[in-house]
Design goal:
Number of strands: 3
Strand content: 15-25%
Order of helices and strands: EEE
Oligomer: single chain
Largest sheet: 3 strands, antiparallel
Number of helices: 0
Structural class: mainly beta
Strand order of the largest sheet: 2-1-3
Amino acid sequence: MLSIEFCDGGPKLEVAVEPGQVDWDEPSDRPHRAVNIGAVPYEEVTVFFLSAPDDIPQPDAT
């Protein structure tokens, strides 16, 4: 479970996540951070900034 905390002090959002989960979220202009509030530590949370939902987040090396 992640808590999305906004720098403007607005209400926090709680987001359930699973290992290997892939999602597309629209960008936000509100600065924020994600905090692990679950019982299990995360080894890694990776965020890719894409131009469109069908962009390839990790293209093969050329």
